[in-house]
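tokens incoming
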């Protein structure tokens, strides 16, 4: 919307479309007035103000996107922190993920890049990895759906300590360059795996493992009439 407005502003003066657009700002129900109100609400400068800096349309596109990303993420972050069970992902990364762009940039095969969906789902806390008596729950102490152990932080448990995924974990840790970190804490291990860059050795094995966790989780709840 911001870029569309900018393109209209860039039309030559006297252009019928541009003149109508400028004139329509005086009518609150017009698209021109409503779109300007939205820009103001989200803190995005309109094109005439931005253009005074001497920068071009592509710079404006990047500027508007950056402002909106930060605004939306900030809202999500505050709301998420108010949940009864705070998503673990809040402590792992404080800015929008660039994982998908990075995976494409390093030339990973398409079938591997598809698995980044499971990586993102797991990391964002979208998988229900625990429950009570075979049902989803908001209880502080729940049972891991894979090994049955009582857990308070199911995401960290599944990634770092769950015996059901022991072989997959050992395979990944045997390839990833984590030996020099001296990792012993399960939370630190989970964090390191979740911020693993696509260019790192073992990233493909990590995606394969997380994809299996995603599939197994969905199968578990589907068999019980729920959806993960």
């Amino acid at each position: 919307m911001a870029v569309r407005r900018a393109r209209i502003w860039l039309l030559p003066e006297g252009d019928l479309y541009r003149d109508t657009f400028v004139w329509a700002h005086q009518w609150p129900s017009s698209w021109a007035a409503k779109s300007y109100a939205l820009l103001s609400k989200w803190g995005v400068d309109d094109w005439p103000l931005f253009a005074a800096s001497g920068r071009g349309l592509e710079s404006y596109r990047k500027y508007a996107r950056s402002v909106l990303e930060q605004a939306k993420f900030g809202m999500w972050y505050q709301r998420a922190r108010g949940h009864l069970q705070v998503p673990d992902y809040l402590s792992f990364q404080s800015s929008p993920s660039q994982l998908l762009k990075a995976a494409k940039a390093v030339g990973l095969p398409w079938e591997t890049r598809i698995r980044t969906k499971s990586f993102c789902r797991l990391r964002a806390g979208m998988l229900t990895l625990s429950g009570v008596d075979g049902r989803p729950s908001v209880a502080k102490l729940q049972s891991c759906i894979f090994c049955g152990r009582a857990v308070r932080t199911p995401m960290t448990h599944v990634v770092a300590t769950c015996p059901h995924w022991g072989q997959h974990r050992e395979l990944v840790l045997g390839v990833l360059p984590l030996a020099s970190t001296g990792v012993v804490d399960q939370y630190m291990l989970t964090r390191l795996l979740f911020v693993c860059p696509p260019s790192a050795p073992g990233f493909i094995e990590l995606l394969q493992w997380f994809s299996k966790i995603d599939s197994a989780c969905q199968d578990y709840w589907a068999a019980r009439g729920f959806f993960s």
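note: The radius of gyration is 24 Å.
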